[in-house]
């Protein structure tokens, strides 16, 4: 059986990655993890959702290969698998802030399209 990663076009793999990132809870978790590994208890406090819901979102990110988990005793800790994910989050922020600025500029100070 052929290796799926080898046979899958990169644009398809990108679409699958973006699909996995397509929820605000997952993006928030990644933003928190970009600053370093976090135990689930900290992620729960920072994100403020039910443990079962967070677990489902983290599982999606794990399946996508974006985060990894480790366990020490009763503590489960998550980490980003690659620093380039933080760079991608920064690029998205830069794009969105620029887009917001262009929209405001296009609307002008009166809120009407020019």
Name the overall outline: globular
| Number of DSSP-assigned strands | 3
Total number of domains? 1
Do you know the CATH architecture?
Orthogonal Bundle
Q: What is the CATH superfamily?
A: Winged helix-like DNA-binding domain superfamily/Winged helix DNA-binding domain
**Physical arrangement of strands within the biggest beta sheet:** 1-3-2
Tally the helices. 6
CATH classification, class level:
Mainly Alpha
Topology order in helix (H) and strand (E) letters: HHHEHHEEH
Structural class based on helices, strands and sheet pairing:
alpha+beta
Q: Gap between N and C termini, in Å?
A: 57 Å
Tell me the Rg in angstroms.
18 Å
Largest sheet properties:
3 strands, antiparallel
Strand content: 5-15%
Keywords: DNA-binding, Transcription, Transcription regulation
Domain HTH arsR-type: 6-100
GO molecular function: DNA binding; DNA-binding transcription factor activity
Protein name: Transcriptional regulator, ArsR family
Describe the protein's architecture and organization.
This protein is α+β, with helices and mostly antiparallel strands and 114 residues long. It has a single domain (10-106), classed as Orthogonal Bundle (Arc Repressor Mutant, subunit A). Helix content is 61%, strand content 12%. The protein contains six helices and three strands. A three-stranded antiparallel sheet has the order 1-3-2. The longest helix has 24 residues, at 84-107. The N and C termini lie far apart (57 Å). The mean pLDDT is 89.
């Amino acid at each position: 059986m052929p290796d799926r990663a080898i046979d899958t076009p990169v644009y398809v793999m990108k679409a699958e990655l973006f699909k996995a990132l397509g929820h605000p809870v997952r993006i928030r978790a990644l933003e928190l993890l970009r600053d370093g590994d976090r135990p689930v208890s900290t992620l729960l406090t920072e994100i403020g959702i039910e443990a079962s819901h967070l677990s489902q979102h983290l599982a999606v990110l794990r399946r996508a290969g974006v985060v990894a988990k480790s366990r020490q005793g009763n503590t489960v800790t998550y980490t980003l698998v690659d620093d380039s994910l933080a760079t991608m989050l920064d690029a998205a922020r830069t794009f969105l802030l620029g887009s917001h600025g262009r929209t405001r500029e296009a609307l002008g100070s009166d809120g009407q399209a020019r």
